[in-house]
Design a protein that fits this description.
Oligomer: single chain
Structural class: mainly alpha
Strand content: 5-15%
Number of helices: 7
Shape: extended
Distance between the termini: 39 Å
Strand order of the largest sheet: 1-2
Order of helices and strands: HHHEEHHHH
Largest sheet: 2 strands, antiparallel
Radius of gyration: 22 Å
């Protein structure tokens, strides 16, 4: 069974401690934009209910003095096993440079260790450099028949601006990946286990 992005986020958050569905929603509201994902509360509660059915989580009542008791969700050994399977599964970068899968993978699999984070960054960096080197830079304006020279010039300029946007976004991503790779390599090489 392939884990959906929400499954990974839920398991990753529950691995850090018991949470209510509302806690998960609050995390996604605050951190979701950083990992490129959001979900409605109904999706979160529905998936947490499935986790209980699948024995990936169990429900625990959290008594409240005012109002109804809250339902906390706690990850089970089966849930941890599923998360670990995902962490250990091969990472294949998306063709889209800013696909949320890398951010989610880095956030929840990379937190295992600097070595795991370094592995993920290197895979993504190698892929992005290769894709950037192979990118077709020819401009292909789509014009209506009988376009004037001014319209043709505008279309070429407009396409160039769009091309530059994509190039700068990927270049910035590659620069961040290179800087992060150096930083992680330093952490890995200076850890007590490496000495």
């Amino acid at each position: 069974m392939t884990l959906a992005r929400l499954d990974v986020i839920l398991l990753g958050l529950l691995a850090g401690g018991d949470r209510t569905g509302y806690d998960v929603w609050k995390w996604l509201e605050a951190r979701g934009p950083q990992v490129g994902y959001s979900a409605k509360t109904s999706q979160i509660y529905r998936q947490l209910g499935k986790f209980v059915e699948w024995d990936w989580a169990k429900q625990i009542l959290d008594p409240r003095d005012s109002g109804p008791d809250a339902k906390l969700y706690r990850i089970t050994e089966e849930g941890r096993r599923k998360l670990e399977e995902w962490v250990d599964s091969p990472y294949v970068p998306s063709r889209r440079p800013l696909d949320p899968d890398f951010q989610v993978r880095l956030r929840f699999a990379g937190s295992r260790s600097p070595e795991k984070a370094l592995e993920l960054v290197r895979i993504e960096l190698e892929y992005r450099k290769r894709a950037e080197a192979e990118f077709d830079r020819t401009l292909d304006p789509v014009l209506a028949e009988g376009a004037s020279p001014a319209e043709l010039e505008w279309q070429k300029e407009w396409l160039l601006m769009q091309h530059d946007r994509g190039h700068y976004m990927v270049s910035n991503l590659i620069a961040w990946l290179e800087a992060t790779e150096r930083r992680l390599q330093y952490l890995v090489s200076s850890s007590p286990e490496q000495k």
